[in-house]
């Protein structure tokens, strides 16, 4: 279980990104973070694994307070947290297999990692994960030869190679087309269900969040203004999260995108 209490982040500029955020994510739950730009979504995720240092508050993963760890302890605890990035964060010149095995770097010695000499069980596990994300036929392909959706699948496999107790996912579909976005979100939710793995997903697409998330937390100006199931995410709630002007604009854009997607699907069906 992840339990955050009183989490605050104030930058050196004086800007406050998070204002006393408290929430719990039980085992197996997929929580989606939504909100306007600058609401604190990415900051919240990055505070959990301390890519961003919190100003105050506690971040409990099980019985360990991640916010109070020194560097050596933090490195050990980060092995428990898989991170999936918006821009994939792959090493372009390495193969899929090598990128997935990089998820095991926290478990092998310096020399093994330097020489990329991983134990046989790690290599076997990497094959299994690449098969699970649908890329078993591309194990020797370089990362820079992949499509965006394929890169995100590699990122998922790499995170799972850590055998994490928590997944942090930062805008996994922001660079993807609508069809691929749905495929990636479906894959993520299936994997979390298979492993009873909790996940916190920063997601900008409200319809996707409503379709795939079990619970949604809405942030505005660094504070939680909504916390509940997707069914409770009414027009009123969305206006509270985004503001009337921003939400009406987003809704219009979503409707136009859905119409364009439907037309694309129709044309593809005709071609087939």
Automatic annotation (TrEMBL):
Domain ABC transporter span(s) in chain numbering: 2-246
GO molecular function, one term: ATP binding
Coiled-coil parts of chain: none
SUPFAM superfamilies: P-loop containing nucleoside triphosphate hydrolases
Superkingdom of origin organism: Bacteria
Region (Disordered): 253-272
Annotated SMART domains: AAA
Spans traversing the lipid bilayer: none
Entry protein name: PHOSPHONATES TRANSPORT SYSTEM
Species assigned in the record: Fulvimarina pelagi HTCC2506
